[in-house]
Amino acid sequence: MAKVKIKDLVEEILNSFLMENNLELYNVEFVKEAKDWFLRVYIDKVQGTEEQYISTDDCEKVSRFLSEKLDETDPIEQNYYLEVSSPGMDRELIKEKDFIRYAGKQVDVNLYQAVDGKKKFTGELVGVVDDNLVIIDEKTKRIEIPVTKVAKTKLAVIF
Fold this sequence. Notes:
This protein is an alpha+beta fold.
């Protein structure tokens, strides 16, 4: 089964279960590493007014449910490891809603192609405006980076 179809299938299986448990699907990866395949499911709490975190109990509950459903239909031909986890403190921002949700937070941005001679930027996320990722750096300089040049945007971990 194609990777995209597996992602769609996992989303379809989990949709109502996650809603019932005040959770949401953050991302799904089906990847081969060395000789093994991994189905990685990242879950998050439905965002309210205060920040909430995923517990190991949340991950276990989703893992058991998804594992049972996948065993029933057996849609994946190859052997794989199922992993359910939180996207973490340094989560990658993937979807448009992630960029909206985390506006005002510090992010680390890695580029495919240098902009102003740099391939890494850190700053406060403004958002995506006119196909540009916009951040404010430590010198309060507004930086606009074409989205096509952005390899990865992650929340910065600040202690």
